[in-house]
Amino acid sequence: MAALAFSYQVQAQNWQKTRPASGFNGIQVSHGIDLYLTQSSAESLRLEAKGVEEDEVVSEVKEGVLVLRINRESGMGNWGKNRSVKAYVSFKTLEKLRAGGGSDVYTQGTLNVGDLSVDLGGGSDARMDLKANHFSISAGGGSDADLSGSAQVFDVSASGGSDVKATGFKADVVRVKASGGSDAHVYATKEISAEASGGSDVYYAGGAKTVSVRKSGGSDVTRRD
Fold first, then answer.
1. What is the DSSP string of 23-57?
2. Rounded (5°) CA angle 25-30-35
3. Distance CA 211, CA 17 (A)
4. What are phi and psi of 25, to 5 degrees?
5. pLDDT, tens digit, for every residue of 156-196?
6. Would the pLDDT of 6 be above 70?
7. Which whole number is the average pLDDT over 27-50?
8. CA 215, CA 197: separation in Å to the nearest integer?
9. Backbone phi and psi for residue 191, each to the nearest 5 degrees, phi listed first
10. pLDDT at 80
11. What is the C-alpha to C-alpha distance for residues 165 and 87, in angstroms, rounded to an integer?
12. How far apart are CA 33 and CA 154, in angstroms?
């Protein structure tokens, strides 16, 4: 009977669910929930979970932001490899995205956005393909980003041992800051402003004619074509 009860509990904790989600232009994801983004004419949210109860996964829209998080009475101390939550989100407009607490972000297909700001922290990673007017990304706390696509203006901030790999993301104007042992790889076609400090490295490619460089604390800014 004990084995049957355990089997039932595990089965009950593996589920898929479509939930209502509308009226948002921002997303905030945390607690290890992995986010899969798709651009669409209709907004939607589908969750796939393993080893976690349905009522422990919170999804709500607050002031135009879709918030995805875990709420467990026992806390997150025993959250392990046997537990996972994936959130598949379709959006019409996206202006801001924040991922923390080990949540990862993936785009499904190329996203066409106007101005988009992305904030990664707490070991969260992002792999994104997008086209934008103005795209800004901040990666901190050991977060990594792998980017492809293009933008007119690209702002990059990498800190706390984070890495931003964006040589496949071509922008007319690039402004990049790297600090605290971080690395940034970017591609600028017209102009670039690069600052590196605290043992960080910035690598840039492209045909930028206007170049501004500041470096300190054993850091380097290097051109690679």
1. S-SEEEE-TT-EEEEEE-SS-EEEEEEESS-GGGE
2. 60
3. 50
4. -125, 10
5. 999 999 999 999 999 999 999 999 999 999 999 999 999 99
6. no
7. 98
8. 6
9. -150, 155
10. 60
11. 24
12. 27
The full set of domains in the chain, from first to last, is: 1-94 (2.160.20.120), 95-225 (2.160.20.120)
Helix (H, G, I), strand (E, B) or coil at 2: helix
- Alpha-carbon distance of 15 to 54, in angstroms, equals 8
Task: Confirm if 220 and 203 have CB atoms less than 8 A apart.
Answer: no
Q: Tell me, what amino acid is at 171?
A: A
Distance CA 216, CA 42 (A): 48
Beta bridge partners of 22: none
- Does the structure show a pLDDT above 70 at 9? no
How far is the C-alpha of 195 from the C-alpha of 182, rounded, in Å? 11
* pTM for this prediction: 0.92
